Prior knowledge:
There is one protein chain. The protein has helices spanning 10-50, 59-81. By secondary structure, the chain is mainly alpha-helical. The longest helix has 41 residues, at 10-50.
Amino acid sequence: FFFSVEHKGALKVVSRIGIYYLMIYFGASFGFAVMGRISLLIGRFNDLIEYSAKQYWFATPILLIIMIVVLVLTAKKDKQEA
Length: 82
């Protein structure tokens, strides 16, 4: 924090309360954002687990294998060109 005036007396108490209030607010805001993103991640993992079942023709494992094969082939191609 930037202080333009030296804090003495009542101003010191009020500024301390304000600083603590801002720190708690920013911490709670950041925590809320992190928890929201973790909730989205858990939802995506649940979808991946659900789509790996037989009724979806094992979509998740098949797509995972295809992605790995494409990445390996692309890496080999880039290595040969370099």
